From TrEMBL:
Organism: Geoglobus acetivorans
Gene3D superfamilies in the record: Farnesyl Diphosphate Synthase
Cofactor(s) this protein cannot do without: Mg(2+)
PANTHER family (UniProt xref): GERANYLGERANYL PYROPHOSPHATE SYNTHASE, SHORT CHAIN ISOPRENYL DIPHOSPHATE SYNTHASE
Tagged with keyword Transmembrane: no
Protein name: Polyprenyl synthetase family protein
Amino acid sequence: MIESWEEYRVINDALNRLVNNLETLPKVKKAIEHLIRAGGKRTRPLVVLLSAKLAGGKYEDVIDMAMAVELIHTASLAHDDIIDRGVVRRNVETLNVKYDPSLAMLVGDWLISKSVELTSRYGHEIVRNFARTGMVMSEGEILDVYSLTGDFSRDDYFRCIESKTASLFAFSARNAYKFVSGDSEGADRLFQYGLNLGIAYQLVDDLLEFLEIFEEKKSEFESMTLPVILEARVGFRNAVDEVLELIRKFTGMSKEALKTFPSCDAKEKLLQLVDYMTVNMIRNYVTKNREIISLLEAHNI
């Protein structure tokens, strides 16, 4: 669906130009080419472009912000694969396997620095918010890394996913809209859109991993997730049932945050993105599992 959108082409073209024009060490350029050209859904930069468009702006107003968001996300994946000893992501070898963990770590650092440079054109507030989002993402990853070493509660889980995943979606939506429009109230609604979208998306990701049908990512170590926490208390079926209900709740809250904005192409695509990242992902992975489909239908998913 999103692959046919103009915004998807815009961000991919911009990323390809960035890679082609890199002036850095050959090892670094080759590694970045591997990461960027492995593909990806580009959902975070899409949120940037669409939020700016919703505010009445143009893609070029925020294209560097969109690239910065994708680069810091890519860096977080490179670091995550080192921590998890991941071997496959997006159906290709992870950087730490194709090259080595040291290069993967340092290229991740390079991408973070480049992402900050890209945000510098937007002024102090955007740079500060971006830097704070990066710190929050790191805190979420720390919670995730140590989730198996102690008493990791439901509240800990939600704090973890809000930090490591949802915070970047929230930044993407809020700051793109605010930069273009200057409208703080509208920007706060976009923050809620992105935050709840990110939570719902991570719930879906963790549910699919729990069901052992997530084939695009393989690693040696896993973290504590909500389905695992719930299964220990209420059993497999009830755990899946509760997570599906939470996905429905957070997708609804994400869409509700856009309710007061006038109808337009950007709003429609932002709403479609919610389904693409949640309901559609689930259906794509479980179409052959009748038991899971019955659970989906019970929750109108």
